[in-house]
Amino acid sequence: MKISIIILFLFLACLNSYSQKENALLRQGNRKFENGDYKEAEKDYRKALELNKESVKGQFNLGTAVYKNNNYEEAAKIYSNLAEKNKDRELQSKVYHNLGNSYLQSKEYEKSILSYKNALINDPKNLDTKYNLEYAKMMLKKQQQQQQQNKDDKKDDKKDQKDKQDQNKDQNKNQDQQKPPQDQKKISKDDAERMLEALKNDEKKTMQKVKKQKAKVQVTGIEKDW
Question: Distance from the CA of 78 to the CA of which of 47, 70, 141, 225 falls in 20 to 30 A?
């Protein structure tokens, strides 16, 4: 009997020690959070959760610190997990509100709207949640309009491309029809040589003009003052 009492006493003492360490880490994290040092606060909250994984305060505060560190995806996971496990209405309202904010930052507006609605079920008078809900609805509408506009633009691009292809086909067809048959006009050997010589002379003149133009526009040694 005495052995059992001693073992129980040691077990309770151990639990009390863990609880004190957990609370100390949570308080330490809270001070850092209030000072705007969210990364260090996150570290303390994680250490506290290593001592007690089921700590509601630890999970909630970790989710908030993670959110402040712009890691919205992980924040959403933490809040979702906490919402499933806890049934306290006041806490549920806060959890779903923050969950809605996490989805809002990730532009997952439909999930954000659902979260805000769940928050209002637990606290119908929360004006901040009501405002965020209306804002999320507005952003969802804009997102849907943009998506529809992108679809319409793609359709227009495809139509323009098809019209250009059809136009090119018609032009090629007209050009083929305008070409004279190969045997319609025969060129003598002397005429062909004279034409070739004329083309060579024209080509030389053209090349000389190009060289002169290059000499005029070519600029070297320019450095930008960044």
Answer: 141
